[in-house]
Amino acid sequence: MSRKIPQEQYEKTRSYRLKQWLDGSKDLYLGEVEMKPQKPYEETHKQRKKREKEKARAVERVYDTERNAEIRIFRKIYRVFSILFCVFLVLMLLIAVSYLPTIGSADKPANNEVSARYIESGLQETGAVNIVTGMILDYRAFDTLGESHVLFVATCTVLILLRRDEKKRKDGEPAEEEQDFLYEPKDDVILQTVAKILVPPIVIFGIYVILCGHLGPGGGFSGGAIIGAGLILYLNAFGFEKTERFFRASTYKKLSFTALACYTFSKCYSFYTGANHIESVIPLGTPGAILSSGLILVLNICVGVVVAGTMYTFYAMFRKGGY
User: Fold this and answer.
1) Who contacts 263 (Cβ-Cβ below 8 Å, separation ≥6)?
2) Rounded to an integer, what distance in angstroms lies between the CA atom of residue 310 and that of residue 157?
C-alpha cells in the first residue's frame, strides 16, 4: 500500500536529492507526495537494439585485423614461433633416432635379461602357454590395470561431455526412438538379416578369444574388441530401443566397475604375496588346460568386459549422445 508524506519532509529524503542530481532540475511539487513502490528497470526495445549495436561495433573493432595492430603482431609472432617449434621438434627426433642401436645388435634393449626371463621361465612362473598374455597379465599386470582404468575414465568423460539434458529433451525435442531414424534405419531387412546371422557367432568367437587368451593368440583386449563390434552391428541393425533392453549406460557402469574391482583385488593379492615372498594359494594348474595360469583367466575376462563396453559406449555416445 502507498502512503503520503508532506512536501517538506519529502524534499529532505535522499531519493528526492538523488532525483534532483540526476535530472539537473527541481521538481515542482505541491501538497502531499504519494510514495509508490519503484518499478524495476525495464529495457525498451530501442535501448536493447542500441546496446546490441554498440556491442557488435566493439567486437568488430577488436577483431578487425586490418586496423587492430595487436592482432597483426600476435599472428606474426605466432607463425614465427610455430616454425621454430617444428624445427626444434624435428631436430630432437633426429638426434634421438641417431642414438638408437642398429637392427639386430646384441646390446639393444630388446635383447636383455628381461625378455630372456619371459621366454625361459614364463611358462613355469605364470602357467600361461601364451607368453604375451603371461607378460601383460602377470609380469606387467599393474600396467594393464592402469590401461583398463584409462578406458573406463575415458568413457566416463565421454558420457559427461556428450550426454544430453533430460529437460531439453522433454521440452521440445522428439523422443529417442524417433530420433534414432535420423542416424540409422531400423527397417533395413538386409542389415537385420545379416545381423541375426552374424552377431551370435561374433559374440561367441569373442568369448572364445577371451577364455583361450592364455593358451594361444588372443586375450581380453582382442576378445573384448570382437564382442564390442558385435554389439555395434546389432545396434546398427535394430536401433537403440531393442539394444537398450539388455545394454544401457547403467549396465556398462556396473559391469566395468565390477570388472575393474575384481581385477584390482585379484592383483593386489598377487602383489602382496609376491612382494613379501609368500606362497600364493592360487594354483597355476596344468599348462594347456582351460583352467590354468592362475588368475590370468579371470583377468582376461575382466579386461574383455571393460574393452567391449568401452567400444560400444563410445560408438553410442558419439552417434547420438545420452541414452
Assistant:
1) 145, 148, 299, 302, 303
2) 12
